Backbone:
């Protein structure tokens, strides 16, 4: 799959001039310009120069750093992980005492 990006509308007969095109995306009423979530996804790919890297997988026992929220920059160890609910229970040291905090995995990064 590939997307063409341009400042002007592309020619309708472009499909005939490009080798191995199976079909051209077309919305209802013949619109060919991406919109909504499709546009957002295509622009995300464009901003990343077409490279989609694999996600880092968090697992129990890994050391993580909080990258968002009131615990920003705190470091801890994942004690328990619920991948379906995207929650992690992280052991963090507060003033010499170990505490287990429930956090969203989206605010954590592997150290």
Residues:
């Amino acid at each position: 799959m590939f997307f063409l990006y341009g400042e002007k509308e592309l020619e309708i007969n472009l499909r005939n001039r490009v080798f191995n095109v199976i079909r051209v995306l077309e919305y209802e009423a013949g619109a060919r310009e991406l919109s909504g979530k499709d546009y957002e996804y295509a622009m995300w790919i464009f901003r990343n120069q077409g490279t989609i890297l694999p996600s880092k997988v968090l697992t129990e026992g890994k050391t993580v750093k909080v990258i968002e929220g009131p615990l920003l920059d705190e470091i801890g160890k994942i004690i328990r992980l619920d991948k379906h609910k995207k929650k992690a229970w992280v052991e963090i040291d507060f003033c010499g005492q170990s505490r287990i905090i429930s956090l969203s995995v989206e605010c954590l990064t592997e150290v």
Q: What stands out?
A: The mean pLDDT is 84. The chain is about 15% helix and 30% strand. The beta strands are 63-66, 75-82, 87-94, 97-104, 108-110. Residues 6 and 96 are 57 Å apart (CA to CA).
